[in-house]
Amino acid sequence: MYLRRSLPNILTLGNIYCGFLSIGYAASGQFRNAAILIIIGMMLDAMDGRVARMLGVESELGKELDSLADVVTFGVAPSFLVYYTTFMNLGVLGFAIAGLFPLFGAYRLARFNVSKDKSSLQYFIGVPITAAGGILAILTLFGNLIPSVIITVIFTGLCFLMVSRVRIPSLKSVPLPKYGTIVSLFLGVMLFIIYRESYASFPYLIYIATPIYIAYLTYRFVKIKR
Predict the structure, then answer these.
(1) Which residues span the domain enclosing 30?
(2) Are 209 and 43 in contact (CB under 8 A)?
(3) What is the pLDDT of residue 211?
(4) DSSP 3-state of 51
(5) What is the Cα–Cα distance from 41 to 30, expressed in whole angstroms?
(6) What total number of domains does the chain contain?
(7) Is 77 exposed, middle or buried (0-12, 13-18, 19+ CB in 10 A)?
(8) What CATH number does residue 221 fall under?
């Protein structure tokens, strides 16, 4: 029973740990590994809330922990990654610019947490920090093909879009099997590309996270069918 109540929080703590490891990899110059760990964090973030609802163990502790995880893994970690890959040549100014991303993201999360209207499944108000951090991680994976100017523009745009009042279409209303299929195919193609280019430094944690995530999607698919 205790494990059942703790499982969603364990996934969320795993998300935070991925953010910490990502910062460490970025600081040591392993930018591809740092980006992959953020993507693993996205997989865990997609699971924890649904697992809590599926097991009927939702709690205020879990919700607050999830917000803290989002700030670390999708706010602080991507900002370090972008600093080391794009803004490092600007010195202290680049460090200050990169630090704006978690500030905007934390504000967006706080605004969402105190919002009275969280019932809409059709749209988000502002870009979620999870999506923004994931976009930066994906851009880093293909950083050799994308000019720094474009990454800078996208970085700046995401900062302001997170705190904007723009309505962003939500995938919450999409049935999980369809959404899960899209996510699985996307991750499969991405992992194939990364695997071909960076076998030696590939973080083996992905071999654990990906099967667990796919097994989770399969379980949800079978449950909905029943």
Answers:
(1) 2-225
(2) yes
(3) 62
(4) helix
(5) 17
(6) 1
(7) buried
(8) 1.20.120.1760
